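Morning. Coffee machine broken again, so started the prediction first thing and wrote up yesterday's gels while waiting. Chain of 494 residues, entered below exactly as on the submission form.
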Amino acid sequence: MRVSTPIATALLLVSLTIASADPAAQTPRPNIIVIFADDLAYGDVGPFGSKLNPTPNLDRMAQEGMKFTSFYAAPVCSASRAQLLTGCYAPRVSMPWVLGTGDHIGLNPAEVTIPKVLRQAGYDTMMIGKWHLGDQPKFFPTRYGFNHYFGLPYSNDQTLPAAQSKLPVVPLMRDNEVIALLTEEDQNTLTELYTDQAVSYLRARSQRNEPFFLYLADAAVHLPICPGVRWMGKSRNGRFGDWVAQLDWSVGRIMDTLNELNLATNTLVIFTSDNGPWLAKGKDAGTAHPLRGGKGSTWEGGLREPALIWWPGHVPAGEVRDAVTGTIDLLPTFAALAGAKIPENVTIDGADISRVLLGQTATSAREAQFYYFEWQLQAVRVGPWKLALQPQGLSMQVKEGGVNEAGLRLYNLADDIGETKDVAAQHPDVVKRLRAVAEKQRKTFCNDSSTGPGVRPPGRVVKPEYLVTVPPDFLPPKWIKDNYRRLFPQLSGN
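Came back before lunch.
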């Protein structure tokens, strides 16, 4: 029986509306892998302009997948990792800066995280590598939805003296137990060890029917710079470039394993990094070129990261997107692709960008990108326009020439990616519009303090202990307690 034209047209419009409203429903729910580098900057890999660091596998990933050129993380590592897992700006979940060993605080275990959301949708979840969201038992990765964990609980430079050997070490963990203490010399095996663990996990999961989420947070290229022996001398950029080369090898091995196991067409892989280069470290740091600034700053070089998306047959090959996106968008995007639910009573800051990565739009799903330094909102971006609201440091531990004078500064990032020309005087209407966006965010969010209306409390331990047995006369670094008192004055007095 032939359907009349008006009814057929109506049915077609309904079907088109449903399809456009939920693009993720038209794709199979994928396995998901996030590869998160450490201190790797915008200009450190071939797809983003590096001529010194050999990255043939990341080049292949860009050719076979999609490159994101306006993808944002956070200025430092703990903040960045909190954003990735929770879909929130770091101040919202009270992770505004870097956590130390034996710190009083960690990410609140009550927070909604990617592995929690995906596990409820039937995913197996695994984390390998650097955690850095709290090193007390209540803050271990398995408390946040990961079925298993293997890696370092914090940065590879946060060593403690072992009581017996007196050597500076970092603890290597499996699930909730310390299984080894690594010296700096031992660290040259880390990337290979992590990669072997990831490949073993993929092989095991290939025999199972349920989907999986793998979060691989490598130590590369955070100080101390520790490339494996096989990679020493493989670049034209010293030991830093050698470790980038090994990191690239790791990505290639994971891609090759997915192809070998016939998992590639059903696995979404995202490669990105946590923050910009640690410029004060000279040759042991990378470059954010052509961006300005580095790690610890809210210039573009501090938190705009290289990002590659690979999902053969689903993500268009060889395409580039400049839509404003970032780590805060991963949780809602993964939930949409997995058919998972995010609790309605929890505020998150990210947006579902599945239509962008599937090639269905080039438009950002968010109105604005906010740039936080600790609790302070220092800048806001809407479209190509970035308005600096506060003086901005150039990078961690870099003093000279690193701070602009106070005053509003406006940059058109489409024309001036290096933020060299303040055009506020020529565009007062844009300044007014972005100031309004920033002021609304301040009033409803943290208002430059840990007690703002949109800030959720951190997890807290009154008497933290070390994962490494230290000598009885060991004194912890003063900066850890100072940071705690400065950032959380409402907690530090009791």
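The first helix runs from residue 5 to 21. Going to sketch it on the whiteboard this afternoon.
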